[in-house]
Design goal:
Length: 85
Amino acid sequence: MAFPQIALSQVRQARGLKSPGFSIIQFLEGVVDEMNSPTDEQAALIKLTMEGKVMNYPDRWDQENLLNLHKAKIYLEMAIGLLSQ
């Protein structure tokens, strides 16, 4: 099985898939900081939304946007953690 060794050699040479530089990770951390944290009321609405409780339109658009922002922040934090290892 030569391909696993070739693949690892390519990783070591920074060919193909590679980690971003420190400045990019810092940029992502800045994005997370810019997103801030939800207020108590927003956190409660996020929790209700995750439980499947939805509001009527047009408020549902903002409700879904709030949940999507929350998810994006969580995923960014996870990505930063993985990239920082």
